[in-house]
Design a protein that fits this description.
Blueprint lengths: L8 E6 L8 H18 L3 E4 L14 H11 L4 E8 L5 H15 L3 E6 L4 H6 L7 H16 L22 E5 L2 H9 L3 E4 L10 H15 L8 E9 L3 H20 L10 H7 L3 E3 L1 H8 L10 E5 L7 H18 L16
Parallel strand pairs: 1-2, 1-9, 2-3, 3-4, 4-5, 5-6, 6-7, 7-8, 7-9
């Protein structure tokens, strides 16, 4: 089954989690996913930043992690989805971004967001009530620094000299208003794998957001929409469910405690709420062909979170995504290594 559509970029996102408290092994396994994805032809590898530990891991320092990934890969682009911007010193962050971009040969993608953890904000001495304002303020400074302009004081510019980040800044949003704001700022759009607080399917909720974003876009370059989706292929639906079902159910019950989902969800409803695509690759292709936002997406960002499959199962899932699922939807690996900011 092949769907006619323009080529999109294929990505994967990891929240860097494992099954035990061996954080060193969890980090090594996440690095191996980048190596595997690089060899399989994935266009972009993304990491999520979490200062409060997740079950079995979590990544608080994404740019250190991506610097290591840059040394172990040759072509895959390296991004954050997202860096929690209000908790960063924007000038120091810009220096880290420019350093990793230089070391990687220009392969960095910067995704930013405001985060939501009150504990994280308290730990960094920031007011969570000002998270949107702080995100805007810090993004202005980061953009200024990455645009090779003076920041902080007259005469100061960051080093190393940044590459062109004009089309490499992304904003994660959770509302139609946020999508419009991202477009007005000239940022690419990142859409999450689940729409929290809504009963309707995630793609039905997010489709108007994408439409609003595109309608508000007034830049000369092509807008980019990164669509994050839970995708876990296996030899059959039963095998996939055994690897992911309990994790997804537990995650949904945890989120229900904070009001993101209704309480008392069963496993099937938890999988629906996380807009999950799982099973045999043919089943996933058929389901994704009906996905309402995918036709306007320039990037499909696959992830396994909130499931934490065994490392071998995760690698196998990446293989199936790159060799069976994505090609059936119209994706092809880039014909040559791309080490600069390239369009899709």
């Amino acid at each position: 089954m092949t769907t006619e559509r323009p080529r999109f970029r294929l990505g994967f996102l990891t929240h860097v989690q494992g099954r035990d408290d061996d954080i060193a092994r969890t980090y090594r396994n996440a690095q191996e996913l980048f190596v595997a994805a690089d060899e399989l032809g994935f266009d972009v590898g993304w990491v999520a930043q979490h200062h409060v530990p997740l079950g079995g891991g979590g990544l608080s320092s994404p740019w250190t992690f991506l610097a290591h990934a840059a040394a172990r890969t040759t072509r895959i682009r390296l991004g954050t989805a997202v860096t929690v911007l209000p908790l960063e010193d924007p000038v120091r962050l810009a220096e880290d971004i420019a350093t990793v971009d230089t070391l990687s040969g220009g392969r960095v993608e910067l995704g930013v967001g405001s985060g939501s953890s009150e504990v994280e904000y308290a730990a960094f001495g920031k007011d969570v009530a000002r998270k949107r304002e702080l995100t805007s303020e810090n993004l202005d400074i980061v953009r200024q620094a990455l645009d090779r302009r003076e920041v902080g004081t007259p005469g100061f510019r960051i080093q190393p000299r940044p590459g062109d980040f004009n089309d490499r800044v992304w904003q994660g949003v959770f509302s139609e208003q946020g999508a419009k704001y991202a477009a007005q700022r000239g940022s690419n759009l990142l859409l999450n794998r689940a729409a929290y607080g809504f009963d309707a399917p995630t793609d039905e909720v997010q489709h108007p957001w994408a439409d609003t974003y595109l309608a508000a876009w007034d830049q000369q370059r092509r807008p980019r929409i990164g669509l994050s989706r839970f995708v876990f292929p296996a030899k059959d639906r039963r095998t996939a469910l055994a690897a992911i079902g309990d994790d997804v159910h537990r995650a949904a019950l945890r989120m229900a405690e904070h009001g993101a989902f209704p309480k008392g969800l069963d496993q099937d409803e938890a999988l629906r709420r996380f807009h999950s695509f799982y099973g045999h690759p043919d089943e996933i292709v058929a389901a994704l062909a009906q996905e309402k936002v995918l036709p306007v997406a320039t990037d499909l960002i696959t992830q396994f979170n909130p499931a934490v499959p065994d490392h071998d199962a995760a690698v196998r899932a990446l293989e199936l995504i790159a060799t069976e699922v994505a090609p059936a939807l119209g994706w092809q690996p880039a014909p040559t290594a791309v080490t600069a900011s390239a369009g899709v």
